[in-house]
# Entry
Amino acid sequence: MSSKNKNTQLVSSGRKKAYTHGVVNPVIQRASTIVFDSVSELKEAAKTRGDKTLFYGRRGTTTHFALQEAITELEGGEGCVLYPCGAAAISQTLLSFLKSGDHILIVDTVYEPTRDFCDKILAGLGISTTYYPPMIGADIKEYIQDNTKMLFLESPGSITMEVQDVPAMVKVANNHNVMTVLDNTYGNGLHYRPLEHGVDISIQAATKYIVGHSDVMMGVAVANKKYWPTLREHSYLLGQCTSADDAYLALRGLRTMAVRLNQHEKAALEVAKWLEQHALVDHIRHPAFTTCPGHEFFKRDFDGSNGLFSFVMKAGNQHAIDAFLDSLQHFKMGFSWGGFESLVTANLSMKGLRSQTGWEHGPVIRLHIGLEDVEDLIADLQQALAIYEQHL
# Structure
């Protein structure tokens, strides 16, 4: 029996007997070649093109099917493709639908590797990119050209966390026959489901909260009925696949994602509220805070937050930032997030990270609040900020 309750859904989805064989978790089924007992059986499998049917290892095994089914149900789509990382999910989705002469609109606060892919790969294929301000809303219509094929959103945005007015932008895109794709890694499918707001394809770096333990690289893309056949087939032709072992670990992470997210969210809010009162901090870039651009859209569209947020310093220099980072004990420097451990990155400015959106504030420090004791994390930040102040 299916449930609309997301906590129950995370535990029960993707656990058909065909996948579990009578045990709690789907079995790890590793395979390259699938063998058939008859010509008719082979032809029947070929008809499905491997959609939840064993056909060839690159199409997936029952372990992959279980994960795909669970994430499809979580995001409310027609089907899900698995990729070896989040960047692959983004690049292969774009390549599945764009051709030479097309134009794509990308939010200016996008994940840096997505920008690099557009500027260094798509440009060489004759596909042009325009970056737009994240808070543009319905005025995105001013950026649409005759050859615009896709509108790419990321909400909240990388590092500075702007939340976009997705429904308003999707409405404009639909009116101009432009497909919409959204990087939903922050929203994770539990707290935000883009397809419910009209988005055509939702992408996640499953490396982050789905896996949750910083030990698997994986990306997922969930499409609606209109775009699913093309996404599925083109991703296959582009050679995208993942290991059954990684799919198993992602499934295991999915079962506890709601519990982990509750703790990440609670702890992050506590840390952010403490930072908000600190004399060196200008403001907080957390979607649940009114100081975060698009806070009103977050309140309207999201069911919750997680452990990721940034805070902006009133003043600073690279020497102070380096001293701050070097002094931290519980926060480790790393370019990911979503695992059980707390992480930190810092940017003196937004130079090179955006082209259409100015930045008139101080340095930005991004935190991922893990599952450590909150008092220890606050004490760590307190001593590091004292060192930061000494170097101003």
About this structure: The CA atoms of residues 194 and 312 lie 28 Å apart. The radius of gyration is 22 Å. The mean pLDDT is 95. DSSP finds 13 helices and twelve strands in the chain.
